[in-house]
Amino acid sequence: MEQNDSTKQVAAIKNGTVIDHIPPEHLFKIIDILEIGDMDNTVTIGYRLPSGKMGRKGMIKIFDKTEFDQTALEKAALLAPNATVNKIIDYKVSLDKDENGGKPCLPLPEKELRNIVKCTNPRCITNNEPMPTLFTWVDRGDWTIKCEYCGRKIKKENFELK
Amino acid sequence: MGKKSLVSIDECSKEYILEILDCARRFEQEPNRKLLEGKVVATLFFEPSTRTRLSFETAVNRLGGRVIGFQDASTTSSTKGETLRDTILMVNNYADLIIMRHYLEGAAKYASEILSIPEFSRGVPVINAGDGANQHPSQTLLDIYSIWKTQGKLTDQVVTIVGDLKYGRAVHSLIAGLWHFNPTFHFIAPNELKLPDEQKSFCDEKGIQYYEHTEFTEEIINRSDILYMTRIQRERFTDMEVYERVKNVYVLKLDMLNGSKDNLRILHPLPRVTEIASDVDSSPKAYFIHQAGNGIFIRQAILCKALGINA
Q1: Catalytic pick from B39, B62, B109, B136?
Q2: Category of A21 on φ-ψ map: left (φ > 0), alpha (ψ -120 to 50) or beta
Q3: CB-closest option in B105, B133, B198 to A125
C-alpha cells in the first residue's frame, strides 16, 4: 500500500526531490531548516501520512530542485536520520543508493558538525562570540559529539540545532 | 623554527615537551638573556591571575622584551561590547605575541584561529594562559618540569593526585601531559569530586595504570614519588552544602610524611587553602613554592618556542 502511494507520489513529479519518511514531529522544523518557505518552487507537503514502517510520516516534494545546501541537509539529518531523499529526473528516481544499497538518507555529517549544533556550555566561547560552532563525533553509534572549543561532550537527546 | 601558538596540552607532543624542558633548564642556569629584545608581548588578562601573569611578565622582562596589556577586562573595550575577535585583531597590530587568559572556554583556540587568517593577521602566536575550566598548558608544563627536576627523570613515576579531581583543570591536563612517560596514578577524591569518566577512559586507552581511592592514607603516600595536592574550588560548586561537606576532607600534615620515600616531592598548582597544613612547609619534600618559581623558566622556554627563537 505504502509502495503504491509512494509510486504515485513520485510519479507526480517530473523533476525534483522527494524527502520521505520524516518523523511527523520534525516535518515543519525540517521545512524551516531547508528554507523551503523562501523558495519559488512548487512544493507539496504531506503531514501525518499513513506509513507501514512508521505509522505516520511526513513527506516533502520539491519540484524542479535537486541541489540543497549541504549544511542544511546535515542539520536536517540530525532530526531525521532515516528520512530518504529521492532525486527525480524526468519522472524517474535517480539510482543513487546508500552504502548498503538502500535508498539514500539525509546525509549525517561525516567527521565534523560545522555550525549545526549549539554548545550546551554557557561558558563556551561559541555562545559568546559571533562565530560558528564546531563539533566532532566522539561516537557515531551512540550519537555523542564533542565541542572543539570547550571540549564539552553532548549526547543526542541534548542536541540543540543552531 | 616557525611561530606556533600554544593552546592546549593535548596538542603537545612528547618531543615538544622534552624540548621545552631542556630549554627551561638552560634558562634556569642563565635566565637573563636578551632574546626578546625589540619584541612587544601583549598580556591580555580578561580575568584575574597572580602567579601566571607575574611569571609570564617576569619571563618577558628577563628576556629583554617589553610588555603591554591589561589585567582587568573592565578597563577595556570589551565592556562596550567589543568582540574578542576585534580585540585580538587590534592587538595583532601592536604586539609580536599574545598571552591571553580568558574566562570563556575555547577563547584561546578561537584567538589562534583568528590570528591564522592571513588577510587579517601578522602571524602573531597566542599562548593560552588559562581559558575558564578548560586548558592551562603552561601550568602543566611547569608541573612536568618540576617532576623532571626533582626526580631526575619523567618515566615510571608514581603520581598521587589528591582533592578535586572532577573540576580541576590542572589535574586533567597533568594526566594528558604525563601519559607519554608511563606514569602510575593514584587518584584520591571524595565521591562528589572523583575523576570524570572521560579522564579514566583516556587512561584506559593509553594503557596508563591508575587506582582510585576515597581515603587519603599514609600507605598511599609511602608508595608515591609525587604527591600532587589540589584545592577544593569553592567557585565550582552550585550546592554549597556539598562544598561544606568536602572542603576539608583531605589535609596533608607533616607527620603523614614520616614513612614516605626520600625522593617524594609535594606539588600544588596554588593557591592553597587548608589542604596542606603549614607545618609541611618546613619539610624538604615540600616543593610547591619552588614549583611556582619554575614557572618563569618554563614560560621563557614557551615564549621562545612560540616565536620560533632558538634558545
Answers
A1: B136
A2: left
A3: B105
